[in-house]
Structures are given as structure tokens and as C-alpha cells.
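User: Fold this one for me? It's RxLR effector protein.
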Amino acid sequence: MSKIIPRLEPTPAVVNKLAKLKTNPKKAYKMLHLGKTIGKLDDNPTFLPWLQYINLYRNKWGDHTFPDDALLGLLKDTRPEDEVVALLQWMKHVPGMKTRAESMQLYLFEYLSSSSTHKLMNEAWLQSRENPKNVFRVLNRAERVENRGIIQWFRYTELYRAEVKASYSEAQALRFLEDAKASMNGAQIGTLLQAIKEVPDLKNTAERMQSLLFRKFIRVYHTDPRDMASLFMLPWNSWGTILVMNKSDPAYKAWEAYTLQYAASWGGPTLKMQVGQFFAKENPEAALNAVLAFKASS
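Assistant: Here's what I get for RxLR effector protein.
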């Protein structure tokens, strides 16, 4: 993909001609033979004026006359998938197209893509050295079904970190996630990370980030597992509810991980082993009492 966007004339001749004819952008696309272009669309001298014409057409006749999904559908129907994915990233640098391009990236991610498309999207972002916070802005608008958006973001962040090395650490990624999810408390962030731990290729990363998060609550805020349970149960239930939760629930599993880390931090491997045995016997109350008793005696 070309990285340099040439400066557009205010009204290129092709735009004037299309405007006079009141041509629908889809029809104009065919008239300009853009779907049959040999090579890349961003190298075609009429493609940028066509994009400019779309903005003029929508401004005059309304967005509904050629919505973003219609533009994306037209590109997908006429161009290879890898080119479409790269084009959307390239279009973010076209004057007046950034918001629309990000909207189409979201639409492509949610409704028209497969795992191979997701991989292509990450590759396009990485080639542009897109900061993870910008990728998050797109993916955070995705439906929350199975955390697909956040999983994609984690995978991109891993690629980005491998590329830029020490300049973007897991601690930075965690701080960004906490800021971006400001409506969630620390326990809820921990629960989200617990869900990500179930994704095989992200398990280790999510585990380390969760440990970093919990370390802050243990060492800085001095939050014991009972108080942390209250945070896990907000906004509807009391802390004791966590003791009778389904053991496969991400909130319960995150609280179990917190309790074990708390035990290791304050009582070392011996206390952690004791607490772990109670959890293995599905006796979370005994696990909690063991930690609280140690805390009271220390």
C-alpha cells in the first residue's frame, strides 16, 4: 500500500463531471473501471477523486444514499480481501475519510470477516505502526459477544509489543486497559483478564497482566480477599455471594487467583499450598478463613 497521500485538488475534473450527472457512487465506480483496476486501487489516479466524490454525494443527498456498509460491500465484491483490509487502513489518511474508514473496519471485523480477515487486519495495523490505543478505539465498539473485540486487541498488542520491543510493556498495556475501561473497577478488570486467560494463545499474557493488577491491590491498597470479593460482586451482591458461585464463573476464578496470589505474597509458598488445597476441595470459605487467620496473626 502506498503511504503517501497526494494532496487532492478542491474539485478534480472527474468529481465535477460526476456531480453534474448526479451519479450514484456505485455507478461511478463502474464507470471509472475501478473494480477492474490492475494493481492496487490506491495507485489508481481516479480512486482518490472517487472517494472525494462520495463525501460530496453524501453531503448533498444524505449518508443513507451510499452508507459505509455499501462502500465496504462494493470493495469486497470487486477487490481481493487482503487489498480491502489494507485499503481501509490507508483510507484513514485520506482527508475526510478517517471516521468512515474506522467505521468500515469495525463493520468488517464484526459482520464480514473470518479468522483470516482478523489476521489481515492486525497485519495492516502493524504495518502502519498503529498504536494499540487507536486499535482499541475501533474494536471497543464491537459487540461484547465472547469478548471478540478485546481478544483481537490483545492479539494486536502482542504483535505490536514484539515489533517495538521494550517501548511498550505489558504494564503499559494494563494501564491503558484500566484507563480505557474506567467504568470497571479493578476486580472487574481482573475478571475480564480471567476470561482472556481461557484463550490459549493469550493465556500467558493475560495471566501476567492479571498478576500485575492484583499485585497493586495486594501491596499498594492492602486489599484482603474478603474486601476484594466485595469488588468482584459489585454492584448487586455482597461479598459472601462469591463463596457459592459456580466454580467455572470467570469472577469466581479471578477471585480464586487473587486469593492464591495474596496468600503467596503474605504467607509464602506454605500458605499458598494450604489455601490451594482448600480450593481443590471446593471449599472457598476455608481458603478465605486460612488467609484471614494468617493476616490476623501476623
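One thing worth pointing out: Residues 185-298 form one domain.
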